[in-house]
């Protein structure tokens, strides 16, 4: 039986994947509904001005959450021209290097999001967005979306969520590739594992 930190990482990744599955279905439903409403209201000559922006943000969130889920399911793209010519051991090493690159990218993106969103800085400013922007020239918390008039940082939250979830999925995949943890079976996802080295 693998040690508890390994089991915890894999369990967290699989639990997150289940949440992502629900989020993907929800955003697909929302996107479909928004597009249908947009087509209907435009045909009737009564377009709703904020529907287009809502559909764009739903697509953005769907894309990032879907990309994270695809990472855990190992359905992300792979170029196999070189790796398919390697021995089984060489393919395993290439797979481990690839998943470690995913983890590195996720950690780098999470670090960039931390610096950009600066949660400690905005908290130190007493959550005064204008005062914080005046001191740091970081206008993230003062910007608003064009038609919905939402705070922009809410829309941008998908980036740190994606960074953390992709890092966690990459770690779980790495542990499985190293043979430290057993490969997980994913209920609810009826897709085959990619044959590429990823």
| Termini separation | 25 Å
**Extended strand count:** 0
- Please tell me how large the radius of gyration is: 21 Å
| Average pLDDT metric | 91
Q: Quaternary state, please?
A: single chain
Strand percent estimate: under 5%
Summing up helix and strand content along with how strands pair, one would put the structural category as mainly alpha
Task: Name the shape in a single word.
Answer: globular
Number of discrete helical segments: 7
Low-confidence stretches: 193-198
Write the layout of secondary structure elements.
Blueprint: H1 4-43, H2 51-73, H3 88-117, H4 119-124, H5 129-136, H6 152-156, H7 158-177
Key traits:
single chain, 198 residues, mainly alpha, disordered C terminus, membrane, transmembrane helix, TRAP transporter small permease protein, transport
Care to describe what's here?
The protein is mainly alpha-helical and 198 residues long. The protein is built from seven helices and no strands. Helix 1 packs antiparallel against helix 2 (51-73) and helix 2 (51-73) packs parallel to helix 7 (158-177). Residues 193-198 have low confidence and may be disordered. The complex comprises the extracytoplasmic solute receptor protein and the two transmembrane proteins. It comes from Microvirga arabica. InterPro entries: DctQ (IPR055348), TRAP_DctQ (IPR007387). It is a multi-pass membrane protein. Part of the tripartite ATP-independent periplasmic (TRAP) transport system.
